[in-house]
Amino acid sequence: MARRLAIGLMSGTSMDGIDVAAITTDGAGFVRFGQTMLRAYTEAEKQVIRAALQVAPGLQDRAERPPELALAESLVTETHAEAVNAFLEATGYEATDVAVIGFHGQTVFHAPDRGLTVQLGDGLALARAVGVPVVYDFRAADVAAGGEGAPLVPIYHAALVARSELPLPVAVLNIGGVANITYVGRSPAEMVGIEPEAGDGLLAFDCGPGNALIDDFCLARTGRAYDLDGRLAAAGRVDEAVLAALMAHPFFDRPIPKSLDRNAFSRAAVDHLSTEDGAATLTAFTAAAVARGLAQLPERPETLIVAGGGAHNPTLTGMLKLRCNTAIVPAADLGWSTDGLEAQAFAYLAVRHVAGLPISFPGTTGVPVPTVGGVLAVP
């Protein structure tokens, strides 16, 4: 298959900004990393997105655009265009060098049980603004076919695990606003160019809260939308009774694959705690949810590779080591991009779409058959 230069764009549920990443790939086993960049959201931009998040649960149709969502979609599209143009200027690439852009958009609501998943972003407008074909709306086809619509990154994880030569099974943990696990139980090199079926060793699921609860709690208590280096949590004490109550949520007993909305869990359980104890308890909640997720896998993985924003939180990674009973390896130690991994993945998925290869599978989203997701917009 042809190797293409692709750019991926990811604006995650942590809402810190837009990750931009370039890779050269055939959408199967070949991946060569390019440069990455973050275009941070301003506080005013974050407020527009937060307003959309408040309104989105009332949607009855994914195409509805009440004023808050219309404003946020315009903002998301414009800022992504700015990010692409800034990335091209910084890297020296020309638009004509880029075969395709993978545009995830901004998730504001995810309820596959209602047949709804909403990612804001106008793919055609972005393609016209930057002069490059854009693949977008990656999740809708999977949900329409009966899948969870998430997570979508596992086939890219499998491609990277194939390069690592780590002993199998391996699990990859991405800690964004929501945390998700990919399980690679058999040769990933055999999987990335074909259509994995259920039970073939590629499994994935959202396992619980990632940074979202911690970030929202810190914003409410301190005005800063994250716990810098896990310092608040490190200074606090985990309330084990509150943690047990949080872990009693029925989501954790659901079979895999499964997925979560960013706001599936409430931080109200820690409202009575001090700032430090609340941060410690919510951080322990994320770690305990990961441990519960690992227990649902067919085998205990030899290695847990940790990526995403949560990988920068030493208090969280320390709690993972205590609770998960497996070797923890930061993605950076393998030469992977800790922060740009998901953006790279959507570049990879865009190339798979162009090549007609599926991006979601029975073992990763519960979709009945491997599904080619996404919509192609040509400028």
Automatic annotation (TrEMBL):
InterPro entries: Anhydro_N_Ac-Mur_kinase (IPR005338), ATPase_NBD (IPR043129). Keywords: ATP-binding, Carbohydrate metabolism, Kinase, Nucleotide-binding, Transferase. Pathway: Amino-sugar metabolism; 1,6-anhydro-N-acetylmuramate degradation; Cell wall biogenesis; peptidoglycan recycling. Pfam families: AnmK. It comes from the Bacteria. It catalyses: 1,6-anhydro-N-acetyl-beta-muramate + ATP + H2O = N-acetyl-D-muramate 6-phosphate + ADP + H(+). ATP binds at residues 12-19. One of its GO terms (molecular function) is phosphotransferase activity, alcohol group as acceptor. Its EC number is 2.7.1.170. The keyword Translocase does not apply. Transmembrane segments: none annotated. One of its GO terms (biological process) is 1,6-anhydro-N-acetyl-beta-muramic acid catabolic process. Belongs to the anhydro-N-acetylmuramic acid kinase family. Catalyzes the specific phosphorylation of 1,6-anhydro-N-acetylmuramic acid (anhMurNAc) with the simultaneous cleavage of the 1,6-anhydro ring, generating MurNAc-6-P. Is required for the utilization of anhMurNAc either imported from the medium or derived from its own cell wall murein, and thus plays a role in cell wall recycling. PANTHER family: ANHYDRO-N-ACETYLMURAMIC ACID KINASE. This is Anhydro-N-acetylmuramic acid kinase.
